[in-house]
Amino acid sequence: APEPVDAEGMELTDPSEMENHVVLAGYGRVGHAVARILTGEEVEILVLDRDPDKVHQAREDGLKAYVGDAARTEILELTGLARAVQFIVTVDDTNRARDMVRCARALHSDIEIFARAHDGDHATRLVEAGAGHVVPEAVESGLQMAGMSLECFGYDTETVRDLLARVRDEEYRQA
């Protein structure tokens, strides 16, 4: 069978080649902040986004990134989600985020799922869909998700706090 390809015609990485990685759904401002911190700590990430321009940007940033809908079972299976340690949803569309969480939870009952929420009601819906960690909006959500992710990898709280403070300062200077 031919290798699966995305909208730009690039072959997806064989999922059997990836394990203990993070699948990141969305590469906007929040997704970029998460990826920047995790890759800086040598966490392997696979990015999914429906926008070819964002996928192109992620690839320019040195990431494995593919055009795809993270709310579709067959797409998440191609990411090697079954062997991933975390699924992080950073998209701002509330219904799509819920659908992504639900789909990932159905495929991998034990995976750590982090999701960006707009408000309390949205956070409740994400938890009900299967998210274990729900984070508030904007750049702070990217910083907090990355910090929680690093703590799940065994980083101590002080190291994470110092790293996030440094990156937060850099992010706000660029804003």
Report mean pLDDT, rounded to a whole number. 87
CATH topology-level fold name of the domain at 15-136: Rossmann fold
Low-confidence stretches: 1-5
CATH architecture of the domain at 15-136: 3-Layer(aba) Sandwich
Description:
48% of the residues lie in helices and 14% in strands. The chain has 175 residues and is α/β, with parallel strands linked by helices. It has a domain at 15-136: Rossmann fold (3-Layer(aba) Sandwich). The chain has a 6-stranded parallel β-sheet, with helices on both faces. Helix 5 (120-129) links the parallel strand 5 and strand 6 (133-135). Helix 4 (94-107) runs parallel beside helix 5. Residues 1-5 have low confidence and may be disordered.
